[in-house]
Specification:
Blueprint lengths: L1 H76 L1 H6 L3 E2 L6 E2 L2 H32 L2 H15 L3 H20 L7 H25 L3 H9 L4 H12 L1 H16 L3 H6 L16 H8 L5 H33 L1
Antiparallel strand pairs: 1-2
Length: 320
């Protein structure tokens, strides 16, 4: 009996040693895994931080470059003559560098595109989110996604072949390449941004809001316009911000349908935008003309920056 007891004790001690060794190995492995995970965590945090600073650095480099390159021409031409001059003749014997026609054209063109594109985009988003069936919604959503991937030059080519001749014939004009044609093209180009962001905002509205409205006797249309859209207004405003950025920064498509002439803006006059002024003359510019184009780019940059800041402030206030 004593032998059996001693054997059991020895077995128990061996099992305890094996268990302790196993626990130590597991603890060591856990320590290694924690060290590896900690290293990976620190590495990823460093990578994210570097990427964030790279994005900021790009903005700073672009800003500094535009300021350094654009201010000499403004100083030589004069700020008032440059911003409020109504004549741009950079290649004339006595050149003039007034960009007021470009500024007003960009403002009018962007406003017209937003006036047409935003209502259409919001109504299309309502259709996709609240009215269309699954199959129809998937088909339309696919078409919208495809629109967002179409290059600008394709929009310009379609506008030049279809919209410009149509505008010329419908309104009896000598030339259909004008501000109105550019507004139509820009309105179509901002639709994907407005539709996709607005649809996401509308789908994010809690169903309880709509159910409560319907329970109180409101129709589906009344619920959409009086409950759903007001509840989604912050996301819809964000889509407007994206649309404005797309419209005001477009160059190639606008150049192909606007006529690209430095006139004071008129709905049926050939015009030139800030973006197209830079794109059309930069390849052969030199001297003061080249510096003035950098100044135009600086004005465009400041213009977009101010608009985005104002609209973002409006979005933040509406979210509060």
């Amino acid at each position: 009996m004593l032998t059996n007891i001693s054997q059991r004790q020895v077995q128990f001690q061996l099992q305890s040693k094996v268990l302790n060794m196993t626990q130590k190995k597991e603890a060591a492995n856990m320590g290694k895994l924690k060290k590896i995970s900690g290293f990976l965590e620190k590495s990823m945090n460093l990578l994210f931080t570097v990427c964030g600073f790279i994005a900021v650095a790009f903005v700073l480099v672009i800003t500094i470059f535009l300021v350094v390159s654009g201010t000499p021409a403004i100083g030589e031409i004069g700020l008032t003559d440059f911003l409020f001059g109504t004549k741009w003749a950079s290649t004339a014997a006595e050149p003039s560098y007034g960009i007021l026609p470009f500024i007003l054209t960009s403002v009018y063109g962007t406003f017209g595109a937003i006036l047409i594109g935003v209502p259409l985009g919001i109504l299309c988003a309502v259709f996709l989110a609240k009215i269309a069936g699954k199959i129809t919604a998937s088909v339309v959503s696919g078409a919208v996604s495809l629109m967002s991937g179409i290059p600008s030059v394709v929009y310009g080519l379609v506008g030049m072949i279809i919209i410009v001749p149509t505008v010329r014939e419908v309104f009896g004009l000598p030339d259909g390449a004008n501000l109105f044609s550019a507004i139509i093209v820009l309105a179509v180009m901002i639709l994907p941004s407005v539709i996709s962001v607005s649809e996401t905002a509308i789908r994010a509205v809690p169903k309880e809001y709509e159910e409560a409205s319907l329970a109180l006797g409101a129709t589906k249309t009344e619920t959409i316009f009086k409950v759903t859209l007001p509840a989604a207004k912050s996301g819809i405003l964000a889509s407007v911000v994206l649309g404005i950025g797309r419209a005001i920064g477009e160059a190639m498509a606008v150049m192909m349908v606007a006529g690209n002439v430095a006139n004071m803006p008129g709905l049926f006059k050939s015009v030139r935008f800030l973006t197209t002024a830079v794109a059309s003359e930069m390849s052969y510019s030199s001297g003061l003309q080249r510096q003035a184009l950098f100044s135009v780019a600086l004005v465009l940059f400041v213009f977009i920056l101010v608009i985005n800041l104002v609209l973002n402030l409006i979005v933040k206030k509406n979210r509060k």
